[in-house]
Amino acid sequence: MMYNRKSNPNSPPPQLRIPKGNETAGKVAKVVGASKFIVNCADGKERLCDIPGRFRRRFWIKEGDTVLIQPWSVQSDKRGDIIWKYSIMDVDKLHSKNYI
């Protein structure tokens, strides 16, 4: 039987998700609508990003949030998918490790 953090306080906290490979962190600049967002990425590019269907009900994203982006293989400079949303504490850890 699996326990979540509320029912088992002795479980380890979740790990910080660090960008790997072609993933990059970014800040949401504008909500376009229909789960589409304009994101200013850490690599200096502005991308139109979607939330994949498997994450749509998991994340509630608004302007100013820091997210993890996976650029598309076809239009990697213009489009991408949002694959993670960072909490405020995670953003501080990313700043201290120079990922943002």
Helix content: under 10%
Radius of gyration over all CA atoms, rounded? 15 Å
Structural class: mainly beta
Question: What is the CATH topology descriptor?
Answer: OB fold (Dihydrolipoamide Acetyltransferase, E2P)
Determine the number of helices (DSSP H or I, runs of at least 4 residues): 1
Q: Tell me the strand percentage band.
A: 25-35%
Oligomer: single chain
**What is the domain total for the residues?**
1
List the helices and strands in order: EEEEEH
* Chain-averaged pLDDT: 85
Give the CATH H-level superfamily: Nucleic acid-binding proteins
N- to C-terminal separation?
38 Å
Question: Spans with pLDDT under 50 lasting ≥5 residues?
Answer: none
Q: Name the shape in a single word.
A: globular
Explain what this protein looks like in three dimensions.
This protein is mostly beta strands and 100 residues long. Helices cover 9% and strands 34% of the residues. The chain has a five-stranded mixed beta barrel. Strand 1 and strand 2 (36-41) form a beta hairpin. It starts with 23 loop residues before the first strand and ends with a helix.
Keywords:
OB fold (Dihydrolipoamide Acetyltransferase, E2P); 100 residues; single chain; RNA-binding_domain_S1_IF1; five-stranded mixed beta barrel; globular; RNA binding; mainly beta; protein biosynthesis
Précis, in short:
With 100 residues, this protein is mainly beta.
